Structures are given as structure tokens and as C-alpha cells.
């Protein structure tokens, strides 16, 4: 995944080749990237593909794939809890009933999931596993993750769309085209 991110960013993989897979390719890449918990390739692909495909659809498809991929962390946490010995399960149950954890689970876990799903960060995988181990309902987990991932990918897609189509004029009179990465003179 890290090599794919570098190849996309350095344009070793062309945008034309990437967009030849269409929306299905964006969906699959986003799904695999979210399940692997390595930042980058799906967001870079969303950014680049939006220059050639409909940015709203690219963002929605990337968000749906990313949300489904994040279920891997949730299932890991859920199955981890099920695999605990009886003694350790009782200790974990006491932890789950701490006031802070109980209040967070009942009132603020859904907004936390939404916020963490909206922004690229390395903390979502552990929070996803924690949600599964605390037995947060699948719908209560999946809906904010779906909304957050979709919002993130739509914003990234529109940023890519406008980055490739925007022409800037600077006071010096030189026309500049905004590309991925540095600004390059035309």
C-alpha cells in the first residue's frame, strides 16, 4: 500500500491508467486501503481520479469502500473480546463499565467516530477495534463511519478536481497551473 501511494503521488502510475478502472477501481482500492490501515493510496487515487471522473461519484464510491473496509477493525475488536478467557473477560467488563467509558459509549462515541472518520489520522484503527470490543452496535458504528469517510473522500475528490482545472494568475503576470504537488509554470 505504501508503494502504491508513492507510485501514485510520483505519477509512476498514470492518471489515465488509474481512471481506466473507473469507479469500481476507486471502490476496491479504498476498501483494501481501509482494511489494511495504511494511509494514502485511496486518498491519493481519489484526488487524482477526480480530475477525469465525476468528483462527487468518486468521493461517494471511495467513502463507501473505505467505510466497508473499516469494518475489519470493528470485527477484529469484536472477535478479540469473544476470544478472551473468562477471567480476563470479567476484567474487561469492569473496564467497560467505568463511568468515563460508559458515558462515552452511550453519548459521545458516535460523534467521535464521525469526526475521526472525517479526518485522515492513525487513531481510527484502534478506535474501530475498541468500538467492536465494547460491543457498539454495527449500525451505530457503521453509519457515522460511512458519513465521515464519504465526506472525507468527497472533499478530497473536489480538491483534486479543482486542483487540476484551476488556472491561477499571479501579480507578476505569469500564468501558473496548479498541479498535484508544487506549482509548475506553464
Give the strand order of the largest sheet, numbering strands 1, 2, ... along the chain.
1-2-3
- SSE series: HHHHHHHHHEEE
Strand content: 5-15%
The general outline is: elongated
Runs in which pLDDT lies below 50 for 5 or more consecutive residues are 168-186
Mean pLDDT: 78
Distance separating the two termini: 32 Å
Instruction: Report the count of strand segments.
Output: 3
Helix count, per DSSP?
9
Report the radius of gyration as a whole number of Å. Answer: 20 Å
Which percent bin holds the helix content?
Answer: over 70%
Short description:
With 186 residues, the chain is mainly alpha-helical. Helix content is 72%, strand content 5%.
Amino acid at each position: 500500500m505504501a508503494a502504491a501511494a508513492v507510485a501514485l503521488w510520483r505519477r509512476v502510475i498514470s492518471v489515465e491508467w488509474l481512471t481506466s478502472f473507473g469507479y469500481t477501481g476507486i471502490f476496491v482500492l479504498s476498501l483494501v486501503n481501509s482494511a489494511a490501515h495504511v494511509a494514502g493510496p485511496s486518498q491519493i487515487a481519489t484526488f487524482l481520479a477526480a480530475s477525469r471522473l465525476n468528483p462527487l461519484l468518486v468521493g461517494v464510491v471511495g467513502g463507501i469502500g473505505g467505510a466497508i473496509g473499516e469494518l475489519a477493525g470493528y470485527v477484529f475488536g469484536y472477535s478479540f473480546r469473544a476470544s478472551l478467557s473468562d477471567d480476563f473477560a470479567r476484567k474487561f467488563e469492569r473496564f467497560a463499565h467505568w463511568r468515563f467509558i460508559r458515558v462515552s459509549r452511550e453519548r459521545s462515541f458516535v460523534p467521535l467516530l464521525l469526526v475521526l472518520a472525517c479526518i485522515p489520522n492513525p487513531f481510527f484503527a484502534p478506535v474501530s477495534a475498541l468500538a467492536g470490543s465494547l460491543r457498539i452496535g454495527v449500525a451505530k458504528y457503521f453509519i457515522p463511519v460511512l458519513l465521515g469517510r464519504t465526506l472525507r473522500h468527497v472533499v478530497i475528490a473536489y480538491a483534486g478536481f479543482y486542483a487540476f482545472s484551476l488556472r491561477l494568475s499571479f501579480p507578476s503576470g505569469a500564468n501558473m497551473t496548479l498541479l498535484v504537488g508544487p506549482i509548475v509554470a506553464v
